[in-house]
Specification:
The chain is an alpha/beta fold. It has two domains: about 200 residues, DHBP synthase (Alpha-Beta Complex); about 90 residues, Threonylcarbamoyl-AMP synthase, C-terminal domain (Rossmann fold, 3-Layer(aba) Sandwich). It contains eleven helices and 16 strands. Helix 1 packs across helix 5 and helix 10 runs parallel beside helix 11.
Length: about 325
């Protein structure tokens, strides 16, 4: 397949490809998405083929207008209306009971649908021009770090999709928060930039999902994700002692650390990548892992962060990406 790399000015061309049953990679505020018409089962099938994605891993339907939502789901409860008013458009995905118009391939045969309205102007305009909801997981090969730049996308998807839209770097850098509103108590299935604390402020009680659910309602729950080729070691305790021990092994290694911690290792003949704060780490982490993959390290080390706010989402991704946790 020949893939066209288009600038943001060519959205009309991309919209026509979506209408015709093709695949388009486009930027969102979270990560780049690999999209197809969510109401066209044959088009959606191309997403799974391009990514090498398991068929039992559901997709998110992206919309550009609140009027699209009632076409896709049976009922919009009060909890959904509160979240939509507060966080849409934005990096929040809500799960509701789907209508029959949505093909089973989108929901992995389930009765619920994950829906989001992205805030990125290019994503919003593309979906509006296409006039259809767009099913879109992250635009990476299944299991690899999500793409947050066009360069990342081209690395994985060139020759596998019809069009890639170059929209620069993504602002958030982590996939959207996913909350299930079909149960009695709302349940956070995947943490993201919209935090558990923010959700509870709007809804009151919000449960945390069982990470071992057999039939996932959300992407990112069942399979190992975000894994670089270079082994990633997540250090959760005794960080400095463990780093010194690993350095003594004389392996070629890279360290991702906060400025406070990482500066202690700048003279240790290892590659040190510093970040200023957690939002910066969230935005850059997937791209950093991809960049380090091309430098032939024996392993990459990163220290755990506090699991509150955006830190909960970062740790969710690091645990899934890590080859080893110590």
């Amino acid at each position: 397949m020949k893939t066209k790399i288009l600038p943001a000015s060519e959205l009309k061309v991309a919209a026509k490809i979506l209408q015709a049953g093709g695949t388009v990679v486009f930027p969102t505020e979270t990560v780049y998405g690999l999209g197809a018409n969510a109401l066209d089962a044959e088009a959606v099938k191309k997403i799974f083929l391009a990514k090498g994605r398991p068929a039992d891993n559901p997709l998110i339907a992206h919309i550009a207008d609140k009027k699209m939502l009632p076409q896709l789901v049976q009922k919009i409860p009060a909890s959904a209306k509160k979240l939509i008013k507060k966080f849409w458009p934005g990096p929040l995905t809500i799960i509701l009971n789907k209508k029959k118009i949505v093909p089973d391939i989108v929901t992995a045969g389930g009765k619920t649908l994950a829906v989001r309205m992205p805030a990125h102007p290019l994503a919003h305009k593309l979906i509006k021009l296409a006039g259809v909801p767009v099913a879109a997981p992250s635009a990476n090969l299944s299991g690899k770090p999500s793409p947050t730049t066009a360069k990342d996308v081209i690395q994985d998807m060139k020759g596998r999709v019809d069009i890639i839209i170059d929209g620069g770097s993504c602002q958030v850098g982590l996939e959207s928060t996913v909350i299930d509103l079909t149960s009695k108590v709302p349940t956070l299935l995947r943490p993201g930039a919209i935090t558990l604390e923010q959700l509870r402020k709007v809804l009151g009680k919000v449960n945390l999902a069982n990470p071992h659910a057999k039939k996932p309602k959300s992407p990112g729950m069942k399979y190992r994700h975000y894994s670089p080729n270079t082994p990633l070691i997540l250090v959760t305790k005794n960080f400095e002692d463990n780093i010194k021990r690993l350095i003594d092994e004389r392996k070629k290694m890279a360290l991702i650390a906060s400025e406070e911690v990482g500066k202690k290792f700048l003279d240790k003949k290892i590659e040190v990548i510093l970040y200023a704060d957690l939002p910066t780490l969230a935005q850059r982490i997937f791209h950093i892992l991809r960049e380090l993959d091309g430098q032939h390290f024996d392993y990459v080390i990163i220290h755990a962060v506090p699991e509150a706010g955006i830190g909960r989402a970062i740790m969710n991704r690091l645990r899934k990406a890590a080859h080893k946790t110590i």
